[in-house]
């Protein structure tokens, strides 16, 4: 698995502006990068509620790349993963 820092660093080296959608308390892998506080990693309902607001807010910053950790498989996490994978293809 690629780490968030490696993914962000690679995009930054390619000249992309990078932002992060991260669970509460997770530090930004890149200093100075914009971070949206996604919510409690252990609360999939909260992550689901905040997903689109976070993506919209990060998009509004002008970020060309949004780095997001994929939640683990299971129930509501699967729906979040599916939406993130669709967003990555768009």
Write a structural description.
This protein is of the alpha/beta class and 90 residues long. The protein is built from 3 helices and 3 strands. Strands 2-1-3 form a 3-stranded parallel sheet.
Low-confidence stretches: none
Average residue pLDDT: 92
Reported for the largest beta sheet, the result is: 3 strands, parallel
Distinct helical segment count: 3
Q: Strand-and-helix sequence, N→C?
A: HEEHEH
Task: Strand order, main sheet: write it out.
Answer: 2-1-3
Separation, N- and C-terminal Cα atoms: 22 Å
Q: Please give the radius of gyration in angstroms.
A: 12 Å
Number of strands: 3
Shape: globular
Question: Structural class per helix/strand content?
Answer: alpha/beta
- Percentage beta strand: 15-25%
**Helix amount, in percent?**
40-55%
Features:
90 residues, alpha/beta, three-stranded parallel β-sheet, 3 strands, globular
Describe the SSE topology.
Elements: H1 4-13, E1 18-23, E2 34-39, H2 44-60, E3 65-67, H3 75-89
Parallel strand pairs: 1-2, 1-3
Helix pairs in contact: 2-3
Can you give me a brief rundown of this structure?
Helix content is 47%, strand content 17%.
């Amino acid at each position: 698995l690629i780490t968030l820092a490696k993914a962000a660093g690679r995009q930054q080296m390619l000249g992309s502006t990078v932002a992060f959608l991260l669970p509460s308390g997770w530090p930004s892998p890149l200093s100075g990068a914009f971070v949206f506080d996604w919510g409690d990693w252990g609360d999939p309902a909260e992550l689901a509620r905040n997903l689109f607001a976070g993506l919209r807010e990060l998009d509004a910053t002008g970020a060309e790349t949004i780095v997001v950790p994929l939640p683990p498989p299971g129930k509501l996490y699967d729906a979040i993963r599916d939406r993130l994978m669709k967003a990555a293809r768009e």
